[in-house]
Amino acid sequence: MTGELAELVEELRGLIEPGDRPPSPWLDARGVAERLGLAVKSVHNMSGPNAEDPIPFHRLRANGEKRFHVDEVDEWLRDH
Does domain 23-78 fall into CATH 1.10.10? Predict the structure, then answer.
């Protein structure tokens, strides 16, 4: 069964072009800035500890960088 599964996976990989994959829903500060028409520094300020109602974000464990989920950013924008 493992051999058959491996063959099927290889066949499916051949059908998928790199451009066919959906873009990641995760954005860095630059991606949020482009989406909202802001400067990157503004995004950092608006998601920082002194922001009254910060843009929601998650921190990467490896290096502590912020990542923003596009759905959460859009919801935050609708609420403001």
Answer: yes
Residue predicted with more confidence, 53 or 3: 53
Closest CA to 75 of 29, 35, 45, 41: 35
Domain boundaries, the chain: 23-78
Answering whether pTM is above 0.85, one says no
Interacting residues of 26 by C-beta distance below 8 A, sequence separation 6+: 67, 68, 69, 70
29-50: pLDDT as tens digits: 999 999 999 999 999 999 999 9
Please tell me the distance from the alpha carbon of residue 45 to that of residue 57, in angstroms, as a whole number: 12
